[in-house]
Automatic annotation (TrEMBL):
Gene3D superfamilies: Spore Coat Polysaccharide Biosynthesis Protein SpsA, Chain A. This is Glycosyltransferase 2-like domain-containing protein. Residues 45-106 form the Glycosyltransferase 2-like domain. The lineage of its organism: Bacteria, Bacillati, Bacillota, Bacilli, Bacillales. InterPro entries: Glyco_trans_2-like, Nucleotide-diphossugar_trans. Keywords: Membrane, Transmembrane, Transmembrane helix.
Length: 146
């Protein structure tokens, strides 16, 4: 009876080890796909620092590489200075200045910079709430996404 009990635990241990090995290999494969968050802003000094600090702080825990590109559409407040300050400390954040109010001219250079990447574009010029950026990107970071 004791021998059956020991064999049962041994089989359970082997099954758990195989399951964890498969999950590890699947997660390792997913980590190769970086996420690029493109934030289109104008006059965003009131919220951009909070978003960037949250994203750059959460990056080491998500298991994927995160690049944040802030496209500034002619802000007259401190938005550009805030982004440049954070970009100097974090290599994953960069600022792209759009020549006009239309960011479409600056986006082709952003999309062409990474080979295999998931791009998330957020237009924060009044159409999307800044509170939706981090939860939406968290969905891209989760293990359920391929």
């Amino acid at each position: 009876m004791l021998a059956l009990f020991i064999w049962g635990f041994a089989l359970y241990g082997i099954f758990v080890a195989l399951w964890n090995a498969v999950r590890f290999l699947a997660q390792k494969n997913r980590r190769g796909v970086p996420v690029t968050a493109i934030l289109v802003v104008r006059e965003g000094a009131s919220y951009i620092e909070g978003i960037l600090r949250t994203l750059t702080t959460a990056e080491p825990f998500c298991g994927r590489e995160l690049d944040v590109v802030v496209v500034d559409c002619g802000s007259r407040d401190e938005t550009a200075k805030i982004v440049e300050s954070i970009a100097q400390k974090r290599g994953t954040v960069r600022l792209v200045r759009a020549e006009s109010d239309d960011p479409a001219q600056a986006l082709p250079a952003v999309f062409g910079s990474k080979g295999r990447s998931v791009h998330c574009v957020f237009d924060l010029r009044g159409k999307v709430s800044p509170l939706e950026v981090v939860p939406t990107l968290a969905a891209f970071w989760s293990d359920e996404t391929v």
